[in-house]
Amino acid sequence: MKIEVKNVSKKFKEIQVINNINITFESGNIYGLCGRNGSGKSVFQKMLAGIYLPSSGTIFYDGLDLNKMGSYQFNLRALIEKPSFFPDLTGFQNLKLLAEIQNKIGDKEINDALEIVNLFEDRNKKYSKYSLGMKQKLGIAQVIMENPEIMILDEPFNGIERTTVEKIREYLSKKKQDGKLIIISTHINEDLYRLADYVYEFDNGKIREISNEYKD
User: Fold this and answer.
1) CA–CA gap between residue 147 and residue 47 (Å, rounded)
2) What phi, psi does 194 have (nearest 5°)?
3) SS3 38
4) What average pLDDT score do residues 46-66 get?
5) Contact between 169 and 32 (Cβ < 8 Å)
6) In angstroms, rounded to a whole number, what is the distance separating the alpha carbons of residues 45 and 156?
């Protein structure tokens, strides 16, 4: 899988959020995004996920123009900004409901995803009773449970204890070896640099590659 971002900009009324970005993402790599709040990271990730369309420019998925697709047909899952689920359903029930949309997986895969994020023991607790960290874990579980080809994770480790972060990092590194394309943004430099093959910094809607001290 190859995602090609060509001359992409995004404006909201008169506010320029993304300014003429060109970048290519390819399977078998983890790409890290960093930058201060308001630099355009989340908006950019939403465009990659098809939530926003560019104001100008084109995003290609294996040569197909995302802007012109009648429906979103790519095997992609994303966690962008705060996860949101039904408060009166349990963690497992929320994931089960999502899994039934495409019927690609069963209870085993759901439970496996909950094990990976250390949420299995709390799977029968209502979402309304979840802590911030538990909500983040459930958001990550919904991204990984169907083993998508592309994973986009926006600040996924917020509120998550270190042991679980290490476990998720190990999982993502394995999935990269399996040929998945992973794009992750985080303000925690250790997570970013240890995970990512390439690191890009957003600043005022522009993007530039920066050196990764752990990969040099």
Assistant:
1) 21
2) -75, -30
3) coil
4) 91
5) no
6) 13
**Assigned token pair, 135:** 């909500």
Which residues partner with 18 through β-bridges? 10
Helix (H) or strand (E) holding 56: strand 56-61
| CA–CA gap between residue 149 and residue 131 (Å, rounded) | 29
Question: Residue 25 has which token pair?
Answer: 């993402």
The three-state secondary structure class of 200 is: strand
Contacts of 189 (CB under 8 A, 6+ apart): 34
Q: What are phi and psi of 110, to 5 degrees?
A: -65, -45
Residue count of the chain: 216
Q: Which amino acid is at 67?
A: N
Give the span between the Cα atoms of 56 and 127, in whole angstroms: 39
Report the amino acid identity of residue 215. K
* Cα dihedral 24/25/29/31 (nearest 10): 90
41 CB-near residues (< 8 Å, 6+ apart): 33, 34, 35, 154, 185, 202
Provide Rg for the chain, Cα atoms: 17
CA gap 184, 157 in Å, rounded: 10
Largest CA distance in the chain: 48
pLDDT in tens, 156-195: 998 999 999 999 999 999 999 999 999 999 887 788 888 9
pLDDT confidence of residue 216 = 47
Whole-number Å distance between alpha carbons of 45 and 31: 12
